[in-house]
Amino acid sequence: MEGRFTLQEARGLMSQVLRHAEVYVDLRADFAEASAAVREGNPAAVGGVPELKSLEARLHEELEWFRHQGIEVKGFAPLLIDFPAIGDGQEVYLCWLEGEQELAWYHPVELGFMGRRRIDRLAAV
Question: What pLDDT is stored for residue 8 in this prediction?
Answer without folding.
Answer: 96
